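Hi Q.,

Before the meeting this afternoon, I wanted you to have the zinc ion prediction in hand. No need to reply - just skim if you have a minute. The sequence and ligand are here:
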Amino acid sequence: MIKFGPSGTCAEFTLAGHSHTVEVPAWLKEHDLDCFEYSFGRGVRIQESTAKAIGAEFAKENLEISVHAPYFINLATQEEEKAENNHRYIFDSLAALTFFGGNRCVIHPGSPLKAERGEAMALLLKRLEKVAELKHELGYDDKYLCLETMGKAAQLGSLEEVISMCALDKTFIPCIDFGHLNAREGGIFYTDDDYKRVIERLMKGVGEDKCRIMHVHFSKIEYSAKGEVRHLTFDDEKFGPPFEPLMRVFKEFDLQPYIVCESAGTQTRDAAMMKRYYYELER
Ligand SMILES: [Zn+2]
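Predicted structure with the ligand bound:
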């Protein structure tokens, strides 16, 4: 089933007197939301017992939890030592995800830095193949690795690049960040058809099954000529992209993605706004 929820907790959560992630499931229920993304952006630092306590609360409320692997992962790095560390960050994230009882781990693929783009992409694909192998050996076949489309044109993570990454393993699925795609391309989403083009390309590229269950990040994002500058809230009317046509397309294609809202500070409110809009659409 399609799911809506925020990435991380926001000021409202704190203002409502909450402080710990174990309180998130009740908070989501209050806001009629379905899922939550826990970010390990700056590193995987959580105790097994804490993660299990959080997981138990999510299970009790029948809500989903996904994780975001550290931002400093770069599978296209030229340095072999850093490439080894990537494995630790990915598999620590998957271990924590298991304690949480979730099944999706989002990852930023990487950047060429000073390397030539094609070479960097070839290296990244080789490294991802190794990740797929290890993932299988370590018993994580039941977890999805969600490869994210990135907001800056210089980063590896265009729609086409993510499609080719997903081809490497049956548990690799796309994390389509529509704000990122909009930012890296300088503004491409305005109408239903703009979104349909991407969904149709995905259907062909990764297959219907993976497209149907894809992971989605959604927020409005300010951009410059190089792409992403910063995340905005749904109050923005300048940069977009708009969520309404995307919700209509999800409904029309009967897709069942997990939609994680990454608005700057209003992610709970904005996720709930998307969900309400989606369910008010006529069948
Ligand atoms: Zn991300």
